[in-house]
Amino acid sequence: MLAAVIAASDGPDVFALDEVPEPSGGAILIDVTLAGVSLRDLEHRRGPHAPPVLGTDVVGRRRSDGRRVAALLPDGGGYAQVVAAPAGHVVEVPDEVGDEQALAVLEQGLTAWHCLHTVGRVDPGDVVLVATAGAGGAGHLEIQLARSAGARVIASVQDGTPTLILDGIGGRLFEQLRAVLAPFGRIVTYGEPLGSVPVAPLVTASTGVLGFDLRQVLADEELYRSSAARLFHLVERGVLTFPESPVYPLSAVGRAHTDLENRVVAGKPLIDVRHPF
């Protein structure tokens, strides 16, 4: 099978299209239709122990029965024509949900849902500030899900005082966000680690900081499947909509990484694994 393999040490031009053996073993085999490109893939590519084939989310056909499925791949492998996914990480995709929508839901949608509901405990009285690029990543889904929960979403502190902040940026921005949070409010942070968070200012302001990592959802098969099904249902109802995603052939994974790094894409970049060139 063909795969986009890391053939050098750094930069988005490290990928080369190559023939590699099909995976085998006890996992679920999926003939891939589309693979997603995420910020996590960029982080893995830069890391010292990157797998030879990146790609953490795919949609395609389960080889055993031909059913359309989507899967998250914590160890990578998605930029390939066939993947082996852990059985607990595979979900069936309803007929009314397109492949592109399924990929947006699986990683970004689950992140948005659990940041808001499971960790953030959003309710209709909340004023929510989304500290991400709202047109891309999980940001546009966070905005839609917060509004569907009855919360008021603001673009900046000039629009109101937030009671719930979703922070997908971290770093220096965190202290600025903490300073504008309403008393008894909370920040849910995900993505880049923040380092240490001083407790004294939180106590003084009666505020809280909570973290989220999607791996905790993947560790709970029932939670993963039920929340994915809930999000698919919201797509079917038209509650969640998505910007148009750019699609690249398998040979252009490096270009997809470059475009995502340079923030020149609005939707989630997708790799059309069926078309190598």
3D architecture notes:
The protein is α/β, with parallel strands linked by helices and 277 residues long. Helices cover 30% and strands 23% of the residues. Strand 1 and strand 2 form a beta hairpin. Helix 2 (99-119) packs across helix 3 and helix 2 (99-119) crosses helix 7. The relative contact order is 0.17. The mean pLDDT is 90. InterPro entries: ER (IPR020843), GroES-like_sf (IPR011032), NAD(P)-bd_dom_sf (IPR036291). It comes from Actinoplanes couchii.
Fold blueprint:
Elements: E1 2-6, E2 15-19, E3 28-36, H1 39-46, E4 57-62, E5 68-72, E6 82-85, E7 90-92, H2 99-119, E8 127-131, H3 139-148, E9 152-154, E10 164-167, H4 173-180, E11 186-189, H5 199-205, E12 208-211, H6 214-218, H7 221-236, E13 247-249, H8 253-261, E14 270-272
Parallel strand pairs: 8-9, 8-10, 10-11, 11-12, 13-14
Antiparallel strand pairs: 1-2, 3-4, 3-6, 3-14, 4-5, 5-7
Q: Give the CA-based shape.
A: globular
Could you report the average pLDDT, rounded to the nearest whole number? 90
Q: What would the CATH topology of the largest domain be?
A: Quinone Oxidoreductase, Chain A, domain 1
Write the H/E string, N to C: EEEHEEEEHEHEEHEHEHHEHE
SS-based structural class? alpha/beta
CA radius of gyration is 19 Å
CATH class of the largest domain: Alpha Beta
State the CATH superfamily name of the largest domain: Medium-chain alcohol dehydrogenases, catalytic domain
Runs with pLDDT <50, length 5+? none
Question: Count the helices. How many?
Answer: 8
The total count of strands amounts to 14
- Report the span from N to C terminus: 14 Å
Organism: Actinoplanes couchii
Protein name: NADPH:quinone reductase
Domain Enoyl reductase (ER): 11-271
Keywords: NADP, Oxidoreductase
